[in-house]
Design goal:
309 residues, alpha+beta, Extracellular Endonuclease, Chain A, 2 domains, two-stranded antiparallel ribbon, 13 strands, hydrolase activity, Non-specific_endonuclease, ENPP1-3/EXOG-like_nuc-like, hydrolase
Length: 309
């Protein structure tokens, strides 16, 4: 015991003598003031087989400066304070999620964003020439009023070309819901890429950002929008990850990348592999899947979609 006390005293003497104590307390203060968000919930940790990130969180909030991971019942979003738009939004979809509730008329700031400087408001898009483009669609959650309302948080929208928003992007959303209605369930991730060019508004202007006429904020206009999805047969009695790993369900997977501009063609013309989305975004999608299955799905090995005609 005496030897241990002597060693501690000697260490303290050295620290004070050579300035190490300043370093020690500086580091302590840095640690104490650290604003890094806490660890997110791991996929499936809450026991919910339909967890919105069951197949993996695309990126950790600590790896992306100026972002916040927000978990709502309707979806999970990685929101960028710097860009004032979502980096990605992840959600689960099956036939129970859709209904016929009327659409809300306005978007509202996300209550989990406490600082008004980082909130986007409905009127910030006024006269921009861009649609308030949902990532997780209203119709994927209009079977539950509380969850539908969450899709109208501004953390779930981007400045999106209007004709694309109401055209082939909307058709893609309807087609994915048709799989859910036919007895499948889907794990979907959608996001946007800032890029170098920006997006095209309804006046034909190409903008990299839109400065609100109401407030001193600038919302980033993405140049490309993407979506990746995994489709399996619905079975609520078993864990989906286990079913995929054990080969108990057919698995389909694909991805889409579209320019944020008028799109001439069908969304099928924009199909890419999930690997291509990962290269574009630097994200690791569906990372909770076993490596061999993830590699096959993301390289295009399951690109054929279910026949629900």
């Amino acid at each position: 015991m005496r030897t241990r006390i002597f060693s501690i005293l000697l260490l303290l003497f050295v620290l004070f003598t050579f300035g190490g104590c300043d370093i020690l307390f500086d580091n302590f203060e840095d640690w104490e003031d650290d604003d890094t968000p806490s660890e997110p919930v791991e996929p499936g940790e809450d026991g919910d087989d339909d967890n919105n990130v069951l197949l993996g969180i695309p990126s950790e909030p600590s790896l992306a400066e100026g972002t916040m991971l927000i978990e709502h019942d309707a979806y999970t979003v990685l929101y960028s304070y710097d860009l004032l738009m979502p980096v990605w939004v992840s959600w689960h979809l099956d036939a129970n999620d859709s209904g016929d509730l009327p659409r809300p008329s306005r978007f509202s700031p996300d209550p989990d964003i406490k600082d008004e400087a980082y909130q986007v408001k409905h009127d910030d898009y006024k006269h921009s020439g861009f649609a308030r483009g949902h990532m997780c669609p209203d119709a994927d959650r209009n079977g539950n009023e509380a969850m539908q309302d969450e899709t109208y948080y501004t953390t779930n929208i981007i400045p999106q070309n209007s004709s694309m928003n109401s055209g082939d992007w909307s058709q893609l959303e309807r087609d994915l819901r048709s799989f859910a209605a036919a007895g499948y369930e889907l794990y979907i991730v959608a996001g946007a890429v800032q890029g170098e060019t920006g997006g095209t508004n309804s006046d034909g202007e190409v903008l990299k950002e839109w400065k609100s006429e109401e407030r001193d904020v600038a919302i980033t206009v993405p140049s490309q929008i993407w979506k990746a999805f995994v489709i399996i047969e619905q079975d609520d009695s078993k864990d989906d990850l286990e079913r995929i790993a054990n080969g108990e369900t057919p698995v389909y997977a694909s991805g889409i990348i579209m320019d944020n501009a008028p799109f001439d063609g069908s969304w099928e013309d924009a199909v890419v592999t999930i690997d291509e989305i990962e290269v574009l975004t630097n994200l690791d999608l569906f990372s909770a899947l076993p490596d061999s299955i993830e590699m096959e799905l993301e390289s295009g090995g399951a690109a054929k979609l279910p026949d629900v005609a």
